[in-house]
Amino acid sequence: MVGKDFDVLVVGGGASGLISAIYLAKKGLNVGLIKKASGATQMTSGLFDVLGYMNDELVFNPIEGIKRLTKEKMGHPYSIVGEENVIEELKEATSFFKKIVAEANYSYEGELSKNILTITPLGTYKPTCLAPKWMYLNVLGFRKSKLLFVGVRNYVGVNPVYVARSFNSFLLPSLVKIDKEVEAQAEATYMYVPGLEEGAATSFDVGIALDDQENLKEFASRLSKDAKGVDFLFLPALGYKKPMENQRYLKDELGTEVIELPSVVPSIAGRRLTLALEDAAVKSGVKVHDACKGLSAIRSNGECTAIRASYGGSEIEMEASAFILATGSYIAEGLVMEKNGVKEPLFEIPISTPPNETYSEWAKKEPFPSAGHPSSFFGVNVDKTMRPLSNQKVFCDNLFACGSILAGYDYATEKSGLGVCAVTALIAAKEAGEYIK
Amino acid sequence: MSDITPARILLESDKCIRCGNCLAVCPVTLTARMNKFPGPKHIGGDIARPTHEFEVNDDNLFLCTACDACRDVCPANISIDEIMRVIRSKIVESGRFSKTLKDALESTVKYGNPWGLPRSERTKWAKGLPVKDLSKGEKADVLLFIGCTNAYDTRAQEVTKSLVKILNKAKVDFGILGTDESCCGEPVRWIGETGLFEELKQRNTELIEKHGVSKIVTMSPHCYDAFNSYYDLKKTKIQHYTEFLYELVHTGRVKPAKKVNMRITYHDPCTLGRKHKVFDEPREILKSIPGVDLIEMERVRDEGFCCGGGAGRVWLETPVRERLSVARLHEASKTKPDVVATSCPFCLIQLEDAVKTIADEHVKIKDIAEIFAESIE
Amino acid sequence: MEKKSVVVIGAGSTGAATIRDLSMRGIDAVLLERGDLCSGTTGKCHGMLHSGGRYVPQDKEGASECIRETKILFKIAPHLIEVTGGMFVGFEEDEKADPNFKDKKLQGCKECGIPVEEISVKKALEIEPSLSPEITSALWIPDEGSLHEFHFVCYMCLDAKRHGADIRPYNEVLEILRDGKTVTGVRVKDHIKDRIYEIRSEAIISASGPWAGKIAKMAGANVPINPTPGVMVVVNRRVVNHVINRLRKATDGDIILPHHTTAIIGTTSWPVDDPDKLPTPKDHVERMIKDGTRMIPIVEKCRLLRAYSAARPLIGLKDVPGRDISRTFEAFDHEKIDGIKGFITITGGKMCTARAMAEAAVNLACNKLGIRAECTTDKEPIIGYDEEIDVAKLSEEYGLVKLYTQRAVDRLGPLTRKALDPIKSAPYRGCWLCTDEFVTRAEIEYAVKNLWGHYIYDIRRRTRQSMGTCRGGTCSHVVAGIQVEEFNWDPVDVHADLMSILKLRWAGDKLLLWGDNLRQYKLNEAIYSCLGNYDKLGKGLPFSMPVFGELPW
Question: What is residue B47's predicted lDDT score, i.e. its pLDDT?
Fold first, then answer.
């Protein structure tokens, strides 16, 4: 295989890698992207978090929340982007995101200034900012609402009885504390999806079965009795490739709002997001290399000149003028936690971890501390141009980093995952573009 | 690849964190469903931690086609196919596996091919055709490695004859190993018969070195994979015929002239496409043929959906509802093609079987070589 | 006022064996356990089925006990044990330290009636390929294996129940009632129903392991018990298929054995005062990894799942080092020792000698009660099979892949049909939710209905759900759903319970939080923190299970 030349080579095919690659390709640059597999992006629930909590307090307006954050949390990627710029950049990043996924027939809804509270399949609620159209629902808007959670009998991943009863006794009281006008009552039922009556099903089986028009029709008629008088009907999966169309159909047939619950792994919404972004990348002209694993970076005179990667059974070298590192966090091994510290395996950017303190710190904590687990805060430190730093100096002039590989934040507890990915991807792309000039 | 011990391979399953990314893409899980098939999540993660020596003496493990879709979405790139193979090798040792697979293996031992036909008939397809036979002392630049299916299966033989016609038209100096040719061993290796694979590898390697050819062109992507990934043929360049034919077309050595008027959708063979990234050459060949209207179906290239023939599965009986080939044909049919084209003998016979199964009169299955051959005088 | 002839305190292996024996002799008895069945030392041992070889030559009495009882277990509990055979392997450094040790071991085993033979290093490596090629000597002992501890205790309780006994987990003895120096009964707290009540009894047998001292004090008696914990490390795969012991004087880290789908390396030894305060010292963990790697080199490359400690109930003088104390058991007649009538302690020993321990205790109790009843526990199977289990046939009947049925049979043995039959009328019960250990919904429901599985953590003990690689990440919320749907748990309590079990899993996992274990945690964080928002919503939730001593973080 012959190595190819690019203006920018993006390493990592998750949300941040794809967004930065698409941005640059749309600006007319020759962009290559390599991804070794699918990582955490495919495990996301479909929800696009920007900032859900600030120091354990619910954030209702992410813009306000981030303004506070940039004053209090200096090492956070949002702060590094800069308190003057971050809101504008986030606006642009989220618009851009909505635009590119819409091109792949995958529409997201929501505004940067407003968080919604969504119900999760675990019987809890969480704040988020954007969501696919068929998932977008703010439970704070319930007014004397009748909810029906529908489970698929042979899909164990979502238990509608659990979610419904949990809503009534666990969630509702705390929702009422936030907004005393909230009023709702949840019930549950189980169905079999036509065409999927036998054996155990995955969420993909459910989605694929509902994408079939005949199955969908039959399913709707099975639901019609229980759906009478219901304001919101929840399903674990609305379809695989056609959730929006299926939502419209069911809404028309049943006369009720139909909502897909955020996905729990294995995530159908995560898979859809991955495919939508990849689709957008290919359409924009990004040369995507699947199953292409970065092995080492070749540098000379402080600049990165090429990446050595495995592809299709052999090794290739890919040269580019600039590189964007978007290999993610621990799950897909963009960062590796060894016994004695964290490593970044591709460029070997030094990651500082406090020695030995780690063990005793962790040993004291509960598994899901609300301030975030120490391991989340490790990562690549960057300056405001998204260039990785090593001992506070720029590691490499033509190398940029974005996404969950970055240090200084815990996406899981503050609910900021895709928001950080998108805005840092945008900045990294812009800066890489500048550098090329 | 060959120096990784079974113990090291099984260790890879330590990396599995049960995310289930693999379940989204495994063609067997999507058709046979989880009650029937343990699925890559379990092969990669759990089966490698057995409590019983041969606890997985379950035919269902043999439903995997080693299509590699799972590894390509696994965040740790776990070699699920290799884990599956190591476990199969233990089951094969125990002797408790399907009769049809046993027959295929026994035939390979006896006749050098899994189709149960004598070695002497390996060149029957070549009767009357101008083909150099290196086993008879003739010499050539290029070794055309036919492969068992293209040699023995009557449908696939048509493809072989087409390719020979093309190569002769392009005045390529090529030869075959004749009845000396033995199975490359790729399916044998996936079924888990490691010992037999090593024997075949040695035998074929000696032959290839004996004839001193600088280039091998294989008809089957599986032979291509064997030579590239599991043999040690350092001095020889190995190409699939689509790569070779692409070069011939590109350099003007052969020009498809006659219009064929076909609406074609191309099915990427997993081993050629996903595994070795040969996506463009087959398409460029098709596009170079006048009158070809090439339409892509939904899951193509890296997303390709397996025909169900790999890793020995071509010799397993599958209920209609679980046949990957049928699912794939339905998908291909959505583009309303005249022809579903492919470039692999297993894909060919699987898809032909699917056509018969669903009794579709509208679509034909053809190998790229056949279509190209129609277009040259 | 409730009346029972005998109250048994402690549902570990000893207590369960005791109540089984009592009930089989027709004695009206109740088993009280403050936590879940098998939640004490038995629940945290490495499940070794002992030939007794380990106690040779230093404790021949303990060793002889072991081999005798192990052979009885072969007869009465074949479905609860995995007889793998075992080896003693020695290295150059062991031979240097004591060149005669091997002969002492061989001789001692013969004297104790433990079958043993010396084998060549080559043979040893053939039997167990993952052994270090540096071993210099090996002994083969056929009568070793793995005893499935949770099921051992559970089955004995089931058997006892069949014979009329009353099994009460989560019933904690708060006070032992006395009339002068005669024990008259117990005051109990039922943690689940949240009520306190009393039981009158003629005799009390304390089978409370390392807590025997605490319980005895309640009766005004004394038991010289030295809780002596040791650390164990769980390997994420069955790196060995046989019990591997180190051929040297018993010390730390000289054993690694298979346990279901894992292997366990053990162990260390240090005395503590309070068996409810057991740390898991980091350096012990490191040493176990090192020692395990010495015998089985691939261990250092394997994913390690968890580390934990459990307290041995050693009887003896305080200043005798733990390793030198006999592992034999003792039945304390407190009337003779302390003048307290009606109170017996049975402690010491090993899990595999539980039956003999029970026999001794119940003989003593019968004396006190003036009952003549023969012990038949060595003859009757602990819930035997009433049909041949054909995995292929069952798989077809239930529509399950053979592998899943096999695992269910491994766990349930003779109870397999009872547990899985509901699948026939409701196929969705055949959907499995634990993908590490292949646990179906039917099995979860059976554990709750028939095996005293109350909290999700208890269900885990019976079904092995969450004991696999995912550490409870992908499956626990599904079990939580079943608790609400099938068993009408209040969702708030279930959320609390779910958080509690994740915390308990964490207590062992956090000690090995690097590499793939950390990646696993990151996925679980994505599920429970990012999606589930439990880091915020879980904060106000109380710990669901009764806590004795400290929470392990």
Answer: 66
